[in-house]
Design a protein that fits this description.
The chain is mainly alpha-helical and about 240 residues long. It has helices at about 1-15, 15-35, 45-75, 80-85, 90-120, 130-150, 155-170, 185-190, 195-205, 215-235. It has one domain (about 1-235).
Length: about 240
């Protein structure tokens, strides 16, 4: 049941033009645009080396949090989840299926974004397993947050809130603007954001060839446990 629902989630995402804009086209445009134009003062000589890990993190957040929150919120509004609730699929099974569907879409995203970045001259370093660990933890954290929002708020509130959070985290999470550009007094708080942890971890692995930072792994793990736990307890089918 979980596998069948996950496959349905993937098909729904790939058929939705608005979802593709959010999850694939915008990250690619951010990567290409800021890589070839000297709009930002970035800390590395090769702009794409700094931007590619951040855009990968942005793509994961787009799919696991923003896209999933909006889609699930409107599924609640239109009664789709109510009908699913009448099947043997449990609340935990639904969340697992949605997270698995997100991971499948992310594989496509990573392949496309990495291909564009390589064409722009990106030369990634580090271990693919270390990257995979960060992606899994980041997906779990953002998926939990998306389901928590969609399972408790009205669809319109979820739409507005998810887009607002997306823009705030894009601006303040180190995706295109290095955290060193922010006042030193607020950097400790920014470091605790899931997007900052994911971006910093991917940048350490892919740009510097280092092991995943323990602090980044811990931040993502805490967000994942808390958000998925709360979502499992509070998620409403209707």
């Amino acid at each position: 049941m979980v596998a069948a629902q996950a496959a349905a989630e993937v098909r729904a995402t790939l058929r939705n033009g608005e979802q593709l804009l959010l999850t694939l086209i915008i990250p690619v445009l951010v990567l290409a645009g800021f890589s070839v134009t000297p709009v930002l003062d970035l800390p590395t000589a090769r702009r794409v080396d700094f931007l590619a890990p951040g855009v990968l993190a942005l793509a994961i957040m787009s799919t696991a949090f923003t896209g999933q929150a909006i889609a699930t919120g409107f599924e609640r509004r239109y009664g789709v989840l109510k009908r699913l609730g009448a099947t043997p699929l449990t609340r935990g099974g639904l969340m697992l299926a949605k997270t698995a569907g997100v991971l499948a879409v992310e594989i496509v995203q990573i392949a496309v974004i990495a291909g564009v970045a390589l064409a722009l001259g990106w030369r990634p370093q580090g271990s693919p397993l270390a990257m995979a660990l960060l992606v899994l933890l980041g997906t779990a954290a953002f998926s939990g947050l998306g389901l928590l929002m969609a399972g408790t708020l009205r669809a319109e509130a979820t739409l507005a809130g998810a887009n607002l959070v997306y823009l705030v985290l894009l601006a303040c999470g180190g995706v295109v603007f290095p955290l060193s550009a922010f006042p030193e007094a607020i950097r400790p708080a920014l470091d605790l954001l899931p997007i900052s942890a994911l971006t910093g971890g991917l940048r350490a692995v892919l740009a510097d060839g280092a092991a995943p930072p323990v602090a980044a792994l811990a931040v993502l793990a805490v967000w994942a446990v808390l958000s998925l736990g709360l979502a499992a307890r509070t998620f409403r089918w209707e």
